[in-house]
Amino acid sequence: MKIAFHNFLTTLRRYKASSLFNVIGLTLAFTAFYVILVQVRWELTFNRAIPDAGRICLVAPRSPFDETGYSICSTRPDGEQLIAQSPEIEAGGCIRPWRWDQPVWVKRHGEFHRFRMSLNTVSTGFLTTVGMRAVEGDLGALTQPNSVALSRSQAARLDVHVGDLLWLGDREGKRIDTQHEVVAVYEDFPANSSFAHIVAVTDVGDRDINQASYWNDCYFVRLRVGADPDAVARRWERIHEENYRAYVERMAPIWGEELTEEDMEDPCDCLLVPLDRIYFDRRVFDGMGTFPSGSATLTYSLLSVSVLVIVIALINFVNFFFALLPVRLRAVNILKVFGAPNASLRFSFLFEALGFVILSQLCAWYVAITLQGTEFASYVSSSLSLGDNLPVLAISLAVSLVAALVAGSFPAWYITSFNPAMAAKGSFVGSAAGRRFRTVLLGVQFTVSIALIVFSAFTLLQQRYVRRFDLGFEHERMLTFGTNSQRLIRTDRFDEFASALKQNPQIIGVTAGQGPLVVGNYSIWGREIGGEEVMIHVRPVRSNFLEVLGIPVLAGENFRPGYDRDTTLHYIVNDLLARKGLGLGDRLDDGTVVGICPDIHFRPLQYPVVPFAFVTIPGDMETFYVRLAAGADPDAACDHIRQTVERLDPDCDPVEIRFMDEEIEAQYARERRIATIVGLFTVLAVVIALMGVFGIVLFEAQHRRREVAVRKVMGATTAEVLQLFNRRYVALVAVCFVIAAPVGYWIVDRWLASFAYRTPLRWWVFAAALAVVLAVTVATVTFCSWRTAGENPADAVKSE
User: Fold this and answer.
1) Phi/psi at 67 (nearest 5 deg)?
2) What gap in Å lies between CA 553 and CA 563, rounded to an integer?
3) Tens digits of per-residue pLDDT, 34-73?
4) What DSSP letter does each residue of 476-516 carry, written as one string?
5) Are 454 and 740 in contact (CB under 8 A)?
6) How many CB atoms are closer than 10 A to CB 52?
7) Would strands 284-285 and 70-71 be described as parallel, antiparallel, or unpaired?
8) Model-level pTM?
9) What is the 3-state secondary structure (H, E, C) of 82-127?
């Protein structure tokens, strides 16, 4: 062991350049592997930290809003009866999918202090089902009137304990006088779980307990060990059919319709989705954006990228080893002549491989530590801290050690396999098998690099395509912000607020709506149009909304100012809904269609255009949109907005103002993060692959010195010699491109399939990837072989 360690240190000192390249390449690869594995672990362990996550299931019936998927919501009668009638269910309960972000008042030393807090409504059965654990107080007391339970972190933020009082909400900027007692403090849910957002809960009680038509609740059930989820799902279907029939029979006299047997039926199948699988289950439609979701394809693609980077780096290790064969073989043969056994020599080289790996792994961990707090860390969902990722550290170290043994075994065997006499003649360097092996290794690097460049280029093109896509409205120079201030969002206060904002000449338009315009979830109404059940996405807005956002009216008229106070609803529907048969003057619910607008993209481009309607109602609108004049100073305009808000409502929380473009791009945050990570690691893979080219060319230049000398004596120029070196690598890149192009095409096509609107698969991207790899390869080969090509033939012959 002591001799092996001494040999390793000698290698570092004697072969500084190759050792440095080895350590740099492996460090970059191990850093990439660690970072990606942290993200992959976050994704793959989602919800798994919750005890018995495999037995906790979401009751997911066929979506009434999108018949191609399943809904997170069901009705309370269906859910409660399922729990009561199923011996397979150990516990069950519901959570309402929306949560209220509202002001909360805490009394300290006789004074009230105002905070903001997100509040969820749940049943006590839900608390038992998901294993919510009280660390203070009693969660069972949540059924008491005006009670609330807080997570440990939220209680610490508010500095409250069990028995303290809270006042929830505002009325005209003042606290509501209804007191809520904190009856329990519970342990926070894991950060990578569907329930991480639940920081405060109240009891749903008996609300909607008999409403068979209100799909307002997400039901979770904990199954007993060995229970059959399919049997429970079939029972829900029977219960739903019975409840729906009873509901229709009860409502028929009110509707005044003659109902057929077909009208009495509502066939609706159901799934029970385990909590540990819900994150990746694309069958479940979460229109409210309640629970985070991920993409298994992207997650495993990231993992594959990290493995490929490791493979490329280990190929470099082998390549560098072979590059040093001519100068290291003499020392090996001398040791063999003096009786050194092959086993001892091979152990020495394996120890050297492990030494490089361990040194590189330590450097990689240091780099990972320095990445914390940088902009790059924001692209990873989890902390990069080594202490928070001990399993990742163990996996990373184990993989690297195994890889080092595998990658080091062949070179160790190879260099000790030659007969000393044959090696002295230099015959080993001409081995056809050795050349083929090195060519295959380098080909793998080129193939992976080209495929990654193609994929990275298309992710960037898709991001560019999304940013430049015509959404059907003018979102440039548009500011947006939200507020719960009753002094600002009420209909009778809007004109005053808008006029005050427009006193600044940089602001030329102000409007409002209920929620952001471009978002994944909307209010959805099911209506029958032309004999077809149509699900309509509806957005309540102020009467000047279309005008401020530059949305034209194709037919009919725009909203009139008086519609904001009219209890009769007025609709402007999109062209798709009009094509389905809803025309001007038609009734929709309790309102009238007054206009038709183009098919705007009100959801991210992952989704296709669907039936949509703007509606004016005399209700509160909490999201404001402010259009700036051309050449306006955004900072000055934002300062004016904040000052106006503070003047009209001194108790209002400071508003967070964003450009609408930023809000739209936030819908693609996951794709942008993946594109950035893939792009960075693509560059990394190409750099490491070029290191491999460097090592191979060093090897080739070393053992072809005599051949080059002969050619130069026969009249070959330096340019012709360089061309000789480059010809083989150009051909290799071309062959690798033929393999990588279809692989890259398949990967890109699968990734783009998640977008309803996607950038075209352009041929020039593949050509550009080929050109980039060819250019850098030729430059690297030329740089590495320049010295050999320009060497004096006499010097080359002497050294041989």
Assistant:
1) -70, -5
2) 16
3) 988 998 899 899 999 999 999 999 999 986 555 557 888 8
4) TTEEEEE---HHHHSHHHHHHHHHHHTTSTTEEEEEEESS-
5) yes
6) 16
7) parallel
8) 0.74
9) HHHHCCCEEEEEEECCCCEEEEEEEEECCEEEEEEEEEEEECHHHH
